[in-house]
Amino acid sequence: MDEMKLGVVEAKFADLIWQNEPLTSGELVKLCESELNWKKSTSYTVLKKLCDRGIFKNERSVVTSLISKEDFYALQSEKFVEATFEGSLPAFLAAFTKRKALSKAEIEEIKEMIDRIGREK
After folding, report:
1. What does CATH list as the number for 2-69?
2. What confidence tens digit (pLDDT) does each residue in 12-23 have?
3. Do 86 and 94 form a contact (C-beta atoms < 8 A)?
4. What is the pTM of this model?
5. Shortest CA distance to 50 belongs to which of 99, 74, 94, 15?
6. Domain residues of the chain, as ranges?
C-alpha cells in the first residue's frame, strides 16, 4: 500500500501532472519552479520516484499518468476501508458520521448512488 500513497508534497506534484498532462519534463520543471518553488533536480527526483512506483511515466521526455487521479484516490479509499474497517463500508460510514453529521444533500446523494449501483447489478 505504501507504494501507492502520496505525501502532501508528492500530492501537489502529482496534481500538477494530472492537471497538465501530457507535458514535457521541461514544462513540468518550469511548473514546479513557479508553483512549488522547486529546483530542477528536486522535480526530477520526485518524478523518478513516482514513476518507479507506477503512478506516472516519463517516456521520451513526455510525462503522463499511468493511473488517473480519480482511480488513484478510489484505490486509496478502498485500501483505507479494507485496512481500517475490515473492508466494511457500513462500518466506515458509521464511524465517519459519528462525529460529522451528513447534510440532507449528502444523504440524498448517497441514496442515489446506492440506488444506481442496485440497478446496475
Report:
1. 1.10.10.10
2. 999 999 999 999
3. no
4. 0.77
5. 15
6. 2-69, 88-121
